[in-house]
Design a protein that fits this description.
Length: 85
Amino acid sequence: MQQVLREELHFFEKNKEEYLKHYKGQFVLIKGKKLIGSFTTEEEAYKAGVEQFGNTPFLINQVVKKEPINAIPALMLGLMRNAGT
C-alpha cells in the first residue's frame, strides 16, 4: 500500500533542523520535495494549500522541536469501536 505524503514527511524530517532556525512555531506547507511557505496559523497554511493545489494531498506541519504525543486511552478506543456497531 502506498503511503500518502511519504515524500513530504521525509522532506520535512530531512530539513527540520533548518526549519527550526527560521520557522519555529510556525506551520509549513510542503508539496513533494518543496517548501511552499510558512504561516502563522494552520488555517492560513490550509487555505494556501487548497488555493494552489486544490483537492490533492499536501503536508501542513508545525515546526516544533518535539512532536506532541496524541494519546488515546485504550478504553476510549474501545468506546469508539463499539459506537460504530
